[in-house]
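User: Round two. Same drill as before: sequence, then structure, for each protein.

Assistant: Same drill it is. First protein:
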Amino acid sequence: MENYRFLAFASLLILGCNGSFSQEEPEAVKQVKVYYKPGMYGGWPANNGIWIWGNEILVGFSKGVYKDLGARHNIDRDKQEQHMLARSVDGGDTWTIEDPGKTGGLVPHGYFMAKPRTDVPQQEVLEQNEAINFLHPGFALTVRSNGNAGQSRYWYSYDKGHQWKGPFALPNFGTAGTAARTDYIINGKAACMLFITSAKSDGKEGRVLCVKTTDGGKSWSFLSWIGEEPAGYAIMPASVRISEHEILVTVRQKEGDRSFIASWLSADNGNSWTQLKNASDDTGIGNPPAMLKMKDGRICMVYGYRAGLESIRAKTQTSDIRARISSDNGKTWSKDYILRNDGSGQDIGYPRVVQRPDGKIVVIYYFMDDKTGPERYIGATIWTPPAEGKE
């Protein structure tokens, strides 16, 4: 299931984000299969969450039955979808699959694609009467929703995701509905910020906002919109804290036929935002970013590039997993580092990213390639980023 791939980009022409050809330096990466099963569909880590404690990594993903639906997400919508967890205790080299619906009390339902589970009882929404300790050493928080203009729920764990408390309702903050995914910054024992998507004023997808709690989740309040309401959509934010007062957020955005990753900086802890240069000008048909602040202070952003079907079929372009690095807190970004370029279709990406204690980057995503077959699987790339100053 595992293999080392040394991608000699110096001799390989790769179609870059801007549509022009570029050459890349050789990079060593390790590719790992986190979850794959014939006849099944593994998808969307970005919709679920990732957490790390030393070399222990936990990531969520969706599991369903594979069905060929052409260019769409190839999951059978008439079969139930399960929200699973994958855990590694060796920094992402090997993984075990867990079903938190049966063992841990995490049972999201009505979530975007396929039918909810019928093999476990649905949970009643609880009142958040006890303050959450966001600084607990085994803490994890996951935020899910039931549609692009729906309702959002959250669960939390104090034991590294083995047992979960919830679901608890997240308000709609005066919007037509929310589509929250897991993206949060902890500011203290009882203080946390969430970066979520809501419906636009016309009820369509979507617009990004920042909300906060200062009482351990007993109440949540609107803090700010991140950007004006778009003509297209702005969804699926990824955030990192840069300093005591500064926060960087990247956003999946589409305007007309153009899909890109917008970038925003707050210098006042999320109260207001200034737009920066796009973190990526082209993501193909669209994909969300994942982001982290590395141990050396640089920002690493990862995203999936979804190529057009005609280009894939003509073998002039591939669907990729790509990374970029910023050494100036998101003002500018490096070239693309192609972590893998063997995607055989459009249904890939939705990454999550963490950094191991040894400095290696672990990227989790869903993928399809010609070697594995038509099923989507959860993959991991373990990557050594270039040294500071050599981006």
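Second protein:
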Amino acid sequence: MPKVESALYEPLQDGSARCMVCERRCVIPKGGYGYCYTRKNEGGRVCSTVYGEVSTTQVAPIEAKPVFHFYPGSRWLSLGGLGCNLRCVGCQNRKIAHEQPCEVSQGRAERLEPKQVVAMAKERGCLGVSWTYNEPTMWLEFTARTNRIAKKENLYTNYVTNGYMTREALDYVGPHLDIFRVDIKGFSRDFYRRAANVDDFEPILENALRAKSRWNMHVEVVTTVIPGYNDGEIEIGRLATWIATRLGKRTPWHLTRFIAHRDLADVPTTPVDTLDKARKIGFDVGLLYVYTGNVAGHPGENTYCPKCGKVVIGRYQFSVIAYNIEDDRCKYCGQKIAGIFQQSPQAGPGR
């Protein structure tokens, strides 16, 4: 496989090199790999080991990301690669995210070129391309090149990200990225060390702010509420307050139910009551759109008009079952609903 040189690294005098894709900023010796195993030092040059290696391809509704305020009901070509820069306990996609890409790719990944991805999205009637299932910055160069072509073909683009990239990486993809669907997993250093092997989560917060303010991306936040880890009312309150005051009260916040898995197999499923309390905290600090995820049929799946309180978008899991928005406004009272919408949830133009 031809090597694709990394877009972001700094050569060092001893032949090693500092990777500048994520905030770990690994110093990689000659012949060595970075923490994620998606970057290798080839004779002083850092190269991608996963360029174009697609592990997962699926057409999925935007609600599955979850993104609720950007063309609800639209279909997206959803692609996953290999590798991750975090090691989250309980990861649902460990096979493609945690194992070394060179071991996983054999027989599991299909190599595609950017033009092929864009053609596939158009052939399948998708509104855009969504980079998901593993951390998209792990194949930064491939996603960026594909996004540039996608924009020329009037397709939207979406990162489903843990947010732990460098500012340089964010600015590299920023000009051609429409949605920044970011996990803010908790709001304490202790939690991030315990759950994701990260010492400082401040860069994640800074990237969410920069995605919105510098690059005008549509930002939605997801927090999986894990019993005994990040479900304390104080931590939930601090996170909710940060979203409301820094990203803005119109920012959608998704509170997702945790289901026991892998390293956290002994942790109980998040009680619905815990999610309800967290959602109330979000509303109490001023957020207008707070959602309950992974609980089919819960009223918290719906979007409510912040003025009249009526359902403007009704949902059941990933399906839109009611749509009461006209010209981006509540059809009952005329209140502007934050986001980008379409006249019907079945069809919407790209740009």
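The two ends are 34 Å apart (CA to CA).

User: Perfect.
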